[in-house]
Amino acid sequence: MALALGRKPIGLDIAPVAGRSLWQDARTRFLRNRAATASLVVLVLVGLFAAFGQFLAASPPDYVDFGLLGQVKEQGAPSLTNGHWFGLDEQARDLYARVVQGTRISLMVGIVGALVAVVVGTLYGATSGYVGGRVDNVMMRIVDILKSIPYMFVLILLLMVFGRSIFMLFLGIGMISWLDMARIARGQTLSLKNKEFVEAAVATGVKPLTIILRHIVPNLLGVVVVYATILVPEMIIYESFVSFLGLGVQEPNTSWGALISDGTGTMQYGTIWQLLFPLFFFVVTLFAFFFVGDGLRDALDPKDR
Amino acid sequence: MLNYTLRRIAIAIPTLLILVAITFLLMEAAPGSPFATERGVPAAVLANLEAKYGLDRPLIQRMGIYIWNIVAHGDFGESYRLKDRTVNDLIAQGFPVTLVYGGIAFVVAVVVGVSLGVTAAVRQNTRLDYAAVGITIGAQVLPNFVMGPILILVFTLWLGWLPGGGWQGGQWQYIIMPVIALSTSYMASIARITRASMLETLNSNFIRTARAKGLPMRRVVMYHALKPALMPVLSYLGPAFVGMITGSVVVDLIFSTGGIGLFFVNAALARDYGLMLGLTVLLGALTVVFNLVVDLLYAWIDPRIRY
Question: Is residue A70 part of a domain?
């Protein structure tokens, strides 16, 4: 391990050695992975598209161009002249603006799902693993049981009973997402809790909760970050699945799944662009997430190859 | 083994009960009566309707009766919207269809996925390997609701080779696309898992010994490496099965195959609680039982696994 030497040692003609933290090492490794770096750029672009894309739209996502309603097939194709870059959807709304809106919601679902997993899953798993014994047994049995319930049906049930809203969607997705994270965090905690630094903390009288928050959780971060990037696309797929069935987001809101569903419904009439644009964004973003996840795993967990 | 089996079953039963309880509680929490949409119904009629479906009883009692009916008579209750049809009728109508294309899709996913993974691992770092890895990465971002529309677009609208939907008693040209749409992403996952674990197995000592005593590669792979390499795949079969059951909902919607999934979506859209309840319990039970079987198989095949 290199020592950080701020100044040039006197009398020796050696260049000062700059210390590198674990995170710097990880960054170097990540950037060396071309596919992961390119995917990160793609993700940033998609993020920018979701955040600022609406400023380039010809009309807001809920504006119906009545002049073209009913002749979307003939006049609604993507064109640069009338500003409908992606064409019109079946209700003669600007598809570009719709895709921006859908991207925003799909990304949000993915990120909220991952965040819930990170916060709830990590704390739950770390607590279970650290406390151990009977508590651990009970806590993990609960996860096992919840895990073996087919959640897609419960999610659909939830949306059906309490009405379809984005809040319910977030809640439903959040309820599913943390289970695997809890198991992973617990596994890591089990191997951490016998390390010397935890022993030292116990010996100096640090309270268990503080040990979990200050000593265990920070050491879990690498694994948690990697797993969270894998979770995001998974949650996006969940949401899109439900929305594809028409049971997720509700008009005038939309998401990739709903847009793909709309496009599927109309493709036989020749308006293929209504399917292809949302499909393109869905596939490209998911691809990028998977590659970034892979890159992060290699970067943060060099042992596991 | 017996001990483990009993313990696993002891977990499966509360899981099923929790599923039934969640479903019941959610329906109880739904605002209004399930018959409220039929406007202008006099209170007396409404009370009669609720009495007919047993909704005037307390929750626990209803749950008990419901579970008893399933266990003792195999009766999953009645649809609240499709009058004079029981959930059993609808299951009898849709389930065989789902079972046919779902079963084929499951077999295809496992066979193709395992072959692809094994081939890629044995020929590691050749073009074949890269092609296989490429396919699995690509297929990973093509879940059934993406794959379905793409298939219809290509094979029905552009090439005109296959019908875009329908079932027609299960003729082969109506089965192909549902099977591909349903199996692709699971095939990819199985191939990825197989490749990774096969590579690990091929690098282990007992394989080196087998090679060293002069066995041909084919024999080493088939007789020595395959079984240990497939253990992680086996544990993935549970999630894959669940995913396919859920995915059948999408397949029924896209390809109008008339399986059980379509009833599920329609029940959810029409707020048909009776049908929802029946289908959720049936599909949930299937999942739990399948997971149980996989777990037991796992413990039976791999004697090192003890919980």
Answer: no
A227 domain residue, yes or no = yes
Chain B partners of A157 at a C-beta cutoff of 8 Å?
A: 22-23, 26-27, 268, 276, 280
A247: phi then psi, degrees, rounded to nearest 5:
-110, 0
Query: What total number of domains does chain A contain?
Result: 1
State the complex-level ipTM.
0.79
A223-266: pLDDT as tens digits:
888 888 888 888 898 888 888 888 888 878 888 988 888 888 88
* Facing residue for A290 by CB, picked from B23, B140, B265: B140
Closest chain B residue to A267, measured at CA: B153
CA–CA gap between residue B10 and residue B87 (Å, rounded):
28
E strands, chain B, in order = none
In a domain, A277, yes or no: yes
Partner A contacted by B19 (CB < 8 A)? yes
Q: Does B237 touch chain A (CB under 8 A)?
A: no
CATH number of the domain to which A228 belongs: 1.10.3720.10
DSSP notation for A169-185? HHHHHHHHHHHHHHHHH
Q: Which residues are bridge partners to B86 per DSSP? A: B78
Residue at A143 is within a domain: yes
| Domain span at A227 | 35-51+86-300
Q: Which two tokens stand for residue B220?
A: 């080493």
| Encoded amino acid at A279, one letter | L
Whole-number Å distance between alpha carbons of B36 and A288? 47
B122 in Cβ contact with B221 (< 8 Å): yes
C-alpha angle A240-A247-B253 in degrees, rounded to nearest 5 = 80
**pLDDT 10s digits, B134-185:** 888 888 888 888 888 888 888 888 887 888 777 777 778 888 899 999 999 8
